[in-house]
Amino acid sequence: MHPDPNWLDHDRDRPQPPAITPAVASTPEHAGKAPSDAVVLFDGKDLSAWASIDGSPTKWIVKDGYMECVKGSGYIRTVQNFGDCQLHIEWATPEKVKGEGQGRGNSGVYLQNRYELQVLDSYENKTYFHGQAGSIYKQHAPLVNVSREPGQWQSYDIVFHAPRFDPGGKLLKAATITVLQNGVLVQDHVEILGATGPKGAPKYEPHALKQPLALQDHGNPVKYRNIWIREL
Q: pTM for the whole thing?
């Protein structure tokens, strides 16, 4: 059976997929460019797409084409909400190493402000199994540790599908996530078990389909650049 009975096989009149300009890859010195159909969340110039969790202006700083977490400033979130998405984000932990384990270059990318993809300096830095860079925090360890040396720019390319709830708040379908770190697959369409957190078992609480993207302030001056998202 043809996958779509409304069209003839090899039908030249069938509408084509939209054409877009692809992303331009980053270099160690310069951030890349988003594809033409993406929402640019940070282009190296300002934080107009971001706010503190309570909606007030953030105290994170912008310089030299990146944004940097300021200790004690709190998490930062997008003004816009998102559901199913493709997300690209680049990050760098401090070049000068301080601390060890979870105290070294710690931050996180929070899908829907509750499901954390861990950011950490995991180059020759041992921590618990599912707490290193590339982990779905305390749920799924990365398939491999592909972390670069401290201070070097790294990338996450993420495909996320949000959970679905019925009108009464019952979970119908768990969230799933695929992650490439530095171009290497580290999470292969894994099922997120619920909101991530340092204590207790993960569980789902019903929420709207679209929620903010957030970045964690864990007390370390982690840098971010070239952040863009495509709604799916």
A: 0.94
